[in-house]
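LAB NOTEBOOK - FOLDING QUEUE
OPERATOR: T.R.
BATCH SIZE: 2
PURPOSE: Compare the predicted structure-token outputs for two unrelated chains run back to back under identical settings.
PRIORITY: normal
REVIEWER: second-year student, initials M.K.

ITEM 1
FIELD SEQUENCE / FIELD STRUCTURE:
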Amino acid sequence: MTNTLRQDHDLAFMLRYENIAWYEDGVVRILDRRIYPAKTEFVVCRTHQEVAQAITDMVTQSCGPFTAAAAGMALAAFECRDRNEAGQLAYLTRAAETISHARPTTVSRMARITGGCLEAARAALADGEPVDRAIVAHLVRTNDRRYGRVDQIAGHLVDRIPQNGTVMTQCFGETIVGMMLRRAKEQGKTLRIFCPETRPYFQGARLTATVCSEMGFDTTVITDNMPAFVLEREGVDVFTCAADAICLDGHVVNKIGTLQIAICARHFGVPFYVTGVPDQGHPDRASIHIEQRDPEFVLQAMGVRTAAPGVKGYYPSFDITPPELITGVVTDLGVYAPDQLNQYLAVSQIGPYEMVV
């Protein structure tokens, strides 16, 4: 399958659909972002449960699980291909539950992905088509729509970045990072990017910085205790990040460390733009479950232990930034104040099983 007419054209290697996660011939291959770019290796999953476990184990992060989830549903369809129609739908429904609950903080978004795959499966069964192939076709269509909407978000974001502007990111915003840079190139804008490293998985250093550099932009990695200094001294024009969830009350859930950078950005007068759309499944911050991951991860750096035996670790994966620290939420329909997110839902045309970011 060629990429020339798809929405992932001209993006960095790891943002192409097949290089995120892909189903073919009874297996799913997922780019192992835990070791990329030092190594370019794919985790091979032969059951949908293995796909769910790979998502849990952070083989893919940011928006990567959305593509992996659809690929996992195609694999589930392959697994149950010899059952009757009712048996296949029952099997796929259970698979959707398993895959969508691979990580607790993103259940609402993942359920939209697996729900769309179930709809594609029902249509394929009604038409007598191979269900796994139908789900892959659905994956490409939905990714194209999602990437297209993210491209619109990127346009609104880049409009707020000056020529020769300096941008600070946080963690790995996946598609929006590539689309922001592609839009900047189209507008002839030269940007300088500062990427906090984002421990303990170093997504900022390994993933965001790789995408930015590969796409031809001046890219600098900083440690996670440098953002305040950089915001004060380096003329940062915009701090921006994507979000794992955007609550309707304006609270934003993102990789741990986002809140402290938002506080510093407010102190130094740097606007903070969050990219994405509000989640109907999260009416307020009380609806958020912060995932606590293995504390041992903070006691090491890329497999090398940094703390003495007996020292304890603490690893909440996300934090919650309050609306008063957010300049605006950049959506495909424009920029909304954090207290006006219901206005977006009133006019958006997003289907029940579609994702935007």
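ITEM 2
FIELD SEQUENCE / FIELD STRUCTURE:
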Amino acid sequence: MIGPQSAIIADLRRVTPPASRSPTLPPAVYTDPDVFTLERDRLFRRGWVGCGRGDRWPSAGSCAPVDIAGMPVLITRDRSGTLHAFANSCRHRGTELVGAPCRLARIVCPFHAWAYALDGRLVAAPRMESACGFDMAEHGLHAYHVAERAGFVFVSLDAAPCSIDDWLGDFEAVHEPWPLDQLVTTRRLERDIPCNWKLFLEVFNEYYHLGSVHRRTFGAIYDEPDPPDAAAGNFTSQFGTTSGTGALKSGDQAHALDSMPGLGGRHLSGTRYTWIYPNMTFAAGREAMWMLEAWPRAADSCRAVMSVCFPEETRVVPGFERASRRYYQRMDEAMDEDISILERQQGGMASPDAVPGRFSALEPSLANFAFWYAALLAA
């Protein structure tokens, strides 16, 4: 484990506002296995972690496992519609209970058939009569805190976290113009990416690379962005106008779908990019929202999840399936272009002579995350 006097900690303590004077995060935080372990303990096992959209658990009995930096978690929705989160581990001998998204009346361990209600209560334990003093009420699943806000699901592995509303602060107020809680996921795609989880989220939240990495697809439609909002919660957010919609490639602008209901004014002419710390980010455009989750696997790899969401009113329009494919293609091409540069960035970060850089004026959201990250890891 990195010690308090290490060079990495010293570099992290230099990452402080303002962005115009601060160095970037040290390259070692993208490559060092000990830093990866520290992130797990200080970022993912404390506070709140975004776990995607609530419609991944659309109805009673919906279950889906989530790996939170090596912690196997099971999220369920019970018959009353309430979400629950548990350790994805049987209370008998630790077997993983659910390996893939499914719909269940109750959770049954595949090893010895212990069964649990969707709220985590143990309801069946075959052949346990001989265990002296065995009480099923004492062997329910280990529960975690879970919350749903603006259509997003959050889990905390912390025994006593702050409230989700304190964690998010003014998040919902900043995003009030967009009907986030009413959007439905029309496509969800998972990919393994050969780079550190932070790099994957950083590239989504900066304008600096648009003119080079995405110059042939959609980079030219983005105007100079506004400064980031003064966020009061654990997130950063920045709005910028576009020539057309940021959700389509330059050559597909004539095929844009209708705008979100209720969206008006300047919000119709741009995109808001938001990063909810530590691992979930999204872009809210005029007609769609596209969202990324980054789940750490190792210091140099992560599992990425991309979700594309539209209003229900748009999803039911005739021809939506055909029209939406242009949006999905834009998202896929953007990710492919980003991955091609992220692989090279990850390789460069591994150089023993790599050193912290400086933030450009087009990377303020990266700086805001870096300040948040450095303060927690260097504490």
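REVIEWER COMMENT (ITEM 2): The mean pLDDT is 95.
FOLLOW-UP: none requested
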